[in-house]
Specification:
Blueprint lengths: L1 E4 L3 H10 L3 E7 L2 E7 L1 E3 L3 E6 L4 H8 L2 E14 L8 E13 L1 E3 L2 H12 L11 H6 L1 E17 L5
Length: about 160
Amino acid sequence: MRTHFIHDRNEIDTILKQCKTCYVAMSDNDVPYVLPMNFAMDGDRVILHSAQAGRMWETIRKNPKVCINWTLGEELTWQDLQVGCSYRVKSKSVIIEGTAEIIDDNAEKERLFRQFMTQYSDLPFKFSAPSIRNVGVLLVPISKLTAKEFGIKVRSA
């Protein structure tokens, strides 16, 4: 089985568009914390949202550096049915590193939230002022991006 890097940004964006959940890793000093979250992309920035309080917010305020993972695919594949170490999950993965920014401006929060909803639906949405005011929005500009495809079978000559 082989692993190949994916360099084409269009292919990376296609992977992200197919995913519904990302995993956001952060650290409070030496205590790691990973949280599954819904997301959307805004160009080269990841949009995340949640309530404005809790462990994630406390952690982000102390250390805004995050690593975000998306994985698409769970098909089991193998090179040799009888060789355990030849098994692999065929998948594609994207990892982004960046520094989370807390968005406080309500007009920008509403714009980002509209963009956020395009990840999940083509419907037009309305948002009340209290819902925008009360939602927490994080924006993570990409500082490093890596994508790979796993479980590619090696062809015999």
